[in-house]
């Protein structure tokens, strides 16, 4: 596409939401970056920087995407309906309103949350209200300049690759300024085309979260001193509500991060995976001598935690570590109380710690490995449901702090995660066991495993091309018998190329290298950010050796870029 031509088209038409002034102030390099391509629509929907242009998140790109989704729904449903939710990000409420206006104009009934709400409540409401689809306006844990548009199917799971492809075709048909139908929001509300979701639905969601407890009548001490940060997102009200309703009242909130604020003034990267995002919470924890600190990301589908070691220092746990702790806790409790279902299943992503599979096997639980992205975990729940085996699912998680213990939603749930982490902590604490003690016990039993993630940013059109070049190089030059056949002296034994659609999974540009000594490397471009991601897994006798080997492997991978 001719970016200059597109720019001039926008200059004459993009007059709403202050975009006209933004366009007039643009410099040449800014124009090229904003218009060199259309913001891509995939299984994750849209995600991009907020601003003017075809490669940006704004009311026009949101409107065009919504027109495409609406056309798709009209072709596949006789009376289509959609649930809309939004988080605390800049323009989230504006984009949600725009989507509602376009859907209503296209004859799609809209159910919209009256206030900002976490991701899992959208997945839940789609299923509860028997809607045809769901939309969540969010960019998850990305910095404040980003926003996104996530699409769910009627099963409450993020849309499949096939559905995304069909929607993309419908989006491509619509001219951004001429073909997007739109109605007045208040008029649509008055006509019943737009309806607010009732408290009844939210109450039903909380009841399902409560059912996830695996105490089965066992008593625990719930007086743990908790520090919680919503990171200026949607988690404050739902997380504190579930904890208080389940008996946890000793909660200190990180005040600066309590209320919704899309600027994220105290945590530029509102991602609990990053230590910086947890630093203010750590200060609070030290001040009150908290037992446990946790934070949820802005759309409240991820949870990060920190606990005290024997010296009283707060230690951040990785998503992998929290995941294997939850897995072992759930399995042990279900087993002890004879609540393990027939043919139990645990689902994890291919980049998530392989140690989880060994833990699951010890309890007689089958592991299903899926591609990166929780939608693939949700998809597996759906497959179990179709065969009447939905209850076989006991847990799913990914290394990026996403957890789900039940089947009431089909996406990771930070409300559920926060509650289950608190229950697990309290259960062990009541028996004089810390989470770090339990983690060490698991390592002693199953072997020490270190998993790390390394991200490399490639912004702009040149960065996009560079990522493509890197992946091409890995496909052509890295592997058994190829130019690069080892990392840090560890021979590549097997190459798993997921672009070929391995193990019945959808095709995805992901390479997994299995190395000597139960080590592995996964290389993939992010589907939501301009980043290359490298996942390294090392199995060694102890942490010190593992970190040394990991460092050498990472150096070898980076040298291959």
Q: Overview of this structure, please?
A:
With 561 residues, this protein is of the alpha/beta class. It folds into four domains: 3-203, Alpha-D-Glucose-1,6-Bisphosphate, Chain A, domain 3 (3-Layer(aba) Sandwich); 222-316, Alpha-D-Glucose-1,6-Bisphosphate, Chain A, domain 3, CATH 3.40.120; 318-412, Alpha-D-Glucose-1,6-Bisphosphate, subunit A, domain 3 (Alpha-D-Glucose-1,6-Bisphosphate, Chain A, domain 3, 3-Layer(aba) Sandwich); 448-558, TATA-Binding Protein (2-Layer Sandwich), CATH 3.30.310.50. The chain is built from 18 helices and 21 strands. It has helices spanning 3-13, 19-25, 28-35, 59-76, 92-105, 119-128, 161-173, 185-190, 199-210, 236-245, 275-288, 319-336, 355-362, 374-386, 414-429, 435-446, 460-477, 543-558, and strands at residues 46-49, 81-86, 109-112, 133-137, 146-152, 194-196, 226-229, 251-253, 292-296, 303-308, 314-316, 345-349, 366-370, 393-398, 402-404, 448-457, 486-487, 490-497, 511-515, 519-525, 531-540. The protein has a six-stranded mixed β-sheet, with helices on both faces. A six-stranded antiparallel β-sheet has the order 16-21-20-19-18-17. Strand 14 and strand 15 (402-404) form a beta hairpin. It is globular.
């Amino acid at each position: 596409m001719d970016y200059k031509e597109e720019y001039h088209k926008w200059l004459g038409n993009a007059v709403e939401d202050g975009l006209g002034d933004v366009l007039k102030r643009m410099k040449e390099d800014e124009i090229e970056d904003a218009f060199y391509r259309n913001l891509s629509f995939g299984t994750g929907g849209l995600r991009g920087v907020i601003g003017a242009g075809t490669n940006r998140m704004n009311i026009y790109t949101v409107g065009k995407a919504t027109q495409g989704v609406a056309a798709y729904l009209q072709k596949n449903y006789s009376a289509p309906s959609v649930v809309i939710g939004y988080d605390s990000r800049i323009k989230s409420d504006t984009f949600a309103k725009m989507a509602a206006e376009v859907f209503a104009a296209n004859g799609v009934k809209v159910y919209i949350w009256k206030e900002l709400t976490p991701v899992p409540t959208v997945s839940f409401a789609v299923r509860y209200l028997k809607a045809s689809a769901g939309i969540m306006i969010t960019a998850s844990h990305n910095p404040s300049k980003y926003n996104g548009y996530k699409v769910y199917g009627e099963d409450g799971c993020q849309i499949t690759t096939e559905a995304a492809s069909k929607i993309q075709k419908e989006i491509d048909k619509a001219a951004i300024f001429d073909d997007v139908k739109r109605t007045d929001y208040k008029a649509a509300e008055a006509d019943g085309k737009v309806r607010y979701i009732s408290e009844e639905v939210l109450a039903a969601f909380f009841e399902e979260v409560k059912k996830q407890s695996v105490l089965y009548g066992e008593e625990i001490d719930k007086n743990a001193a908790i520090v919680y940060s919503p990171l200026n997102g949607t988690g404050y009200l739902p997380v504190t509500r579930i904890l208080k309703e389940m008996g946890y009242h000793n909660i200190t909130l990180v005040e600066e991060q309590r209320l919704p604020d899309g600027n994220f003034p105290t945590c530029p990267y509102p991602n609990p995976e990053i230590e910086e995002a947890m630093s203010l919470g750590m200060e609070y924890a030290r001040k009150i001598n908290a037992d446990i600190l946790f934070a949820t990301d802005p759309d409240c589908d991820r949870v990060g935690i920190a606990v005290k070691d024997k010296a009283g220092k707060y230690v951040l746990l990785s998503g992998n570590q929290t995941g294997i702790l939850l897995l072992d806790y759930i399995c042990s409790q279900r087993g002890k109380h004879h609540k393990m279902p027939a043919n139990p299943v645990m689902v994890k992503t291919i980049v998530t710690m392989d140690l989880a599979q060994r833990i699951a096997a010890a309890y007689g639980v089958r592991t299903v490995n899926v591609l990166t992205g929780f939608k693939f975990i949700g998809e597996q729940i759906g497959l179990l449901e179709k065969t009447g085996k939905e209850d076989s699912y006991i847990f799913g998680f990914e290394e990026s702090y996403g957890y789900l213990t039940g089947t009431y939603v089909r996406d990771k749930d930070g409300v559920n995660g926060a509650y289950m982490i608190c229950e697990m902590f309290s259960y062990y604490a009541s028996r004089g066991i810390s989470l770090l003690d339990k983690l060490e016990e698991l390592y002693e039993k199953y072997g020490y495993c270190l998993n790390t993630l390394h991200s490399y940013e490639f912004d702009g059109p040149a960065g996009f091309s560079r990522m493509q070049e890197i992946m091409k190089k890995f496909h052509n030059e890295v592997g058994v018998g190829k130019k690069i056949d080892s990392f840090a002296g560890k021979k590549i034994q097997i190459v798993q190329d997921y672009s070929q659609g391995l193990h019945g999974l959808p095709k995805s540009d992901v390479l997994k290298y299995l190395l000597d000594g139960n080590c592995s490397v996964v290389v993939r471009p992010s589907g939501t950010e301009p980043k290359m991601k490298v996942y390294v897994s090392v199995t060694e006798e102890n942490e010190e050796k593992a970190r040394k080997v990991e460092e050498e492997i990472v150096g070898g991978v980076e040298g291959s870029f």
